[in-house]
Amino acid sequence: MLKGKTALVTGSTSGIGLGIALRLAAQGANVMLNGFGDHAGPKAQVEALGVKCGYSGADMSKPAEIEALVKATEAEFGSLDILVNNAGIQHVANVEDFPPEKWDAIIAINLTSAFHTTRHALPGMKARNWGRVINVASTHGLVASAQKSAYVASKHGILGFTKALALETATTGVTANAICPGWVLTPLVQKQIDDRAAREGISVEAAKRDLLGEKQPSLQFTTPEQLGDLAVFMCSPAADNLRGAAINVDGGWAAQ
């Protein structure tokens, strides 16, 4: 379905981003990966699906590197058709104890980076009259949790940005939508589970059960592959008039 298209997925060397990249590649899209850590393995996984794959280690907190990333994608593949803003970080603390530098970093990577990628990608999308901007938000873009003020603020912000962008592109072939996952067993979430197990002196499995039981009524983790399939749907003709939506995949979390 996406043969001839190119997707840039930020924060895509593991977790949700890699899951989305792989599903888009399975539909024929070339992919530009981005992130820290090992990228050879993820790149090989994408290429095994018969598409071209590039990689950039651009720091999503630095506007100049973000601009270079978009330009590199367009130069390598000829276009940037699908932009998935997925890069994200987390820090947990009460507001009065929250390090200001952590707040700034979370807002920069989780929210401001999406503005910079989008503003550079939009001209090409509009010129071709086709594009998809998919922002990976969170159930925390819809509801809040204590000790996650920066993360919650950034994810609420990304939903507002998505809606404004959808209105600005409403009469074009470019759409903007958001995915709001609940608990997905990514490295970011695994670290929270491990920290919880250590803090409470319980097993990792018990920490998983407790985590899900507090928020996610299904008592199941969403998988990166399921989120990837939703991203594929957002790129399909069936979603041509899906604009400014925030679709939560959270096992009933926000329904409570």
UniProtKB/TrEMBL annotation:
Molecular function, one GO term: 3-hydroxybutyrate dehydrogenase activity
Domain of life: Bacteria
Pfam families xrefs: adh_short
Keyword Oxidoreductase attributed: yes
GO biological process, one term: monocarboxylic acid metabolic process
Top EC group: oxidoreductase
Alphabetically ordered keywords of this record: Oxidoreductase
Annotated EC: 1.1.1.30
Family: Belongs to the short-chain dehydrogenases/reductases (SDR) family.
Protein name: 3-hydroxybutyrate dehydrogenase
Species of provenance: Aquincola agrisoli
